[in-house]
Amino acid sequence: MATKELTIGFDADDTLWHNETNFERVHERYRALLAQYHDAATVDAALLATEKRNIPLYGYGVKGFTLSAVETAIQLTDGKISAGEIQRLIELGRGMLEHPVEILDGVVDTLSLLAERHPLIVITKGDLRDQERKVEKSGLGGRFRAVEIVSEKDPAAYAAILRRHGIAAERFLMVGNSVKSDILPVLELGGAGVHIPYHITWALEHAVAPAGAEGRFFAIAKMTELPPVVAGWAARW
Q: Could you tell me where the beta strands, DSSP code E, fall in the chain?
């Protein structure tokens, strides 16, 4: 039976803590490693194409990225890349997995405030072990009723989560930095979404802002602007 509570879901990477900036730092070092073979634009395009092709096999996250980076480097150098250079790529991936979790401004206070009034859930995609590590290291886990780590964020995945927790779609509000992954699937199910953009968006997460979702789609600039939006949405009930 669906609960009458108004539940708020939160994306994790680049919504609760920094993530894409870590990838961008590694991208810079990756371009430098392959600079003797190709220009930066060629390297970026080749890597993105490999990542896109490999997502159905590797999923999202650092491990899949690292495997795609090694594969792309071998292709772009016609197999000339050395074992030592491949080892450097592996070390870059390990470094990202070991990177400290850096909470975004306003997250702690906002979650604490909202958790007093509404059940909160984390819904994130990526490698299970890495995402579990980040939730634990963040110290935010206690503010959430549940943590859901999925391989893809599409309508089917959200629908399964809502069923599992007995949440009616129209009483669910998803908060995240990706229009494609955090907003559009939830709106399709009849829920609501709040977009908080991060200053870097991965190319495969680009999407056009939704149309025709008046009263169910909100765009704000930072996390501290969320409580009034939630209050206004909750007042409808």
A: 7-10, 120-125, 146-150, 172-176, 192-195, 217-219
Rounded to 10 degrees, what is the CA torsion of 11, 137, 133, 32?
80
Residue 19 identity: N
pTM, whole model, 2 decimals?
0.93
What topology is assigned to 20-97 in CATH?
A: DNA polymerase; domain 1 (1.10.150)
DSSP letter (8 states) at residue 167: B
CATH architecture of residue range(s) 7-17+102-235: 3-Layer(aba) Sandwich (3.40)
Instruction: Name beta bridge partners: 71.
Output: none
What confidence tens digit (pLDDT) does each residue in 70-101 have?
A: 999 999 999 999 999 999 999 999 999 999 99
